[in-house]
Amino acid sequence: MELMLQRIWAYFWLPETKYVIAAAVIVTLLSLRLLARERRRVTVTFIAFVLCLLGQLVGAVLEALDYSRLAVMLHELFVIGSGMALFRLLAIFVFRAILPRVGIVVARIAEDICVLSLYALFILARLHFVGLDPSSLLTTSAVITAVLAFAMQDTLGNILAGVALQLDNSLRTGDWIRIDDINGRVAQVRWRQTTIRTRNGEVVVVPNSQLMRGRFTVYGREEVASWPWRRWLWFNLTYDSPPTQVIAAVEQAISVAEIPNVADDPRPSCVLMDFGPGYARYALRYWMIDPQADDPTDSAVRVHLLAALQRGGMELAVPEQSLLVTKENEAYRKSLQRREGERRLADLRCFEILASLQEDELRTISQHLIHAPFVSGDVIYRQGDVAHWLYLLTAGEADVWLEFPQQPRQLFRTITAGSTFGERGVLTGELRHDTVIARSDLVCYRLDQATVEQLVQSRPEIAEAFAGILARREQEMKEFSQRYVEAAPDGTKAEMGMLDRIRSFLGL
């Protein structure tokens, strides 16, 4: 029995066995420590290595029992298996732990080719070691390979295309691509096919040969942080809106609005693209930062665009049908105008500063009101702008910000429904002293300077009411500004009170 155990040990434990086992254990431990995502693959490969060692032990037992032919076959089979497992462990450690840390990223297919080449060389070497002539085997396999290659032309074409795609880095995992009507992110580039995950959660499998023969567009890359994607939003307007005003209004509104996922640089641009029957066709072009949220970002930009067009009194060109010489339509239009007038009167009565006005005076003001909706994030005006409008807020909230030199802007107060703002610049001719940004969607109206002047001249007590409000806000603004600057800037005439400034500017 002891003699048999010695024979088993001598046949199993060769001089190089301890080095092979030590290398496999060290590489496995290092890979498990450094490669958290590859732990399952490393563990499975090491288990295969251990099983191959056990298979070699079984071959040694058979050799001790004088089953020499079967023992040699099993021994060589499991030696080849253990060698392939060791090469796999070394490849995982080198290609995925060592090379990336020195700045070398090797395509997965190139890694597989290197590993397969090592497998082939190792198998040929073992065959030569046991006395088999590999040349005869290669001659026979060449014929078989030719037959298989003819029968598997499409598969081989996909494999070669996959190798080419990864070796020249034209397509990588994580890329955002468009192929025909498919948009999505590359999940995997395998030997035979490339899988693309769309935004709907669908997995589309595309043969690699189709990618090589056709054309695909890459519009986003994971490792490239600054890769904005230009988007086009089309809209049609009637010819009543001058193109220069349309372009300026749209670019100004979208550039200053705080819209998530829209790049500040390059700036959004609006261009006149075409003339159609009864409409001019425009395109708003902006740059999207993250392609994942394409539809929500487009929707947010459309919301801001529509609000900007409505504020500018620019009508979208839509297909319409007119019925002429019908009394019902004329009556209907008058009914709409009457209901709109009543709604505006009801809104004006909510403003305390206008409570002293008579019904006919309110009705006159309502005829001069301009509907000015804003959406959350819209900048209504900025500090330092020239004042043209007085705003009456009927729904929503807006934040008032103060800007100081070399400091971030500070939130001064929040405007709520039923309040007016922007009065100071319109009544005194001063530049805007603050920046107002919509906190939520706003429903408000605005009055131009001529209408405000006419109102104040007809009702001087309104000037006094405005002066009281503005004087109180001016004092609050000075006290707030003193927290951030030693001497708060005051561009007003110090020798004159607020009411005197209003009278001086309006010529009362």
UniProtKB/TrEMBL annotation:
Cellular-component GO terms for this entry: plasma membrane
InterPro entries attached to this UniProt entry: cNMP-bd_dom, cNMP-bd_dom_sf, LSM_dom_sf, MscS_archaea/bacteria_type, MscS_beta-dom_sf, MscS_channel_2nd, MscS_channel_C_sf, RmlC-like_jellyroll
Assigned keywords, A-Z: Cell inner membrane, Cell membrane, Ion channel, Ion transport, Membrane, Transmembrane, Transmembrane helix, Transport
Subcellular location as annotated: Cell inner membrane; Cell membrane
Gene Ontology molecular-function annotations: mechanosensitive monoatomic ion channel activity
Positions of the Cyclic nucleotide-binding domain: 353-473
Parts of the chain that traverse the membrane: 20-36, 43-65, 77-97, 109-129
SMART domains documented for this protein: cNMP
Membrane topology annotation: Multi-pass membrane protein
Similarity field: Belongs to the MscS (TC 1.A.23) family.
Quaternary state and interactors: Homoheptamer.
PANTHER family reported for this sequence: SMALL-CONDUCTANCE MECHANOSENSITIVE CHANNEL
Record function comment: Mechanosensitive channel that participates in the regulation of osmotic pressure changes within the cell, opening in response to stretch forces in the membrane lipid bilayer, without the need for other proteins. Contributes to normal resistance to hypoosmotic shock. Forms an ion channel of 1.0 nanosiemens conductance with a slight preference for anions.
Protein's name according to its UniProt entry: Small-conductance mechanosensitive channel
Organism, scientific name: Candidatus Accumulibacter adjunctus
High-level lineage: Bacteria, Pseudomonadati, Pseudomonadota, Betaproteobacteria, Candidatus Accumulibacter
Record gene name: mscS_2
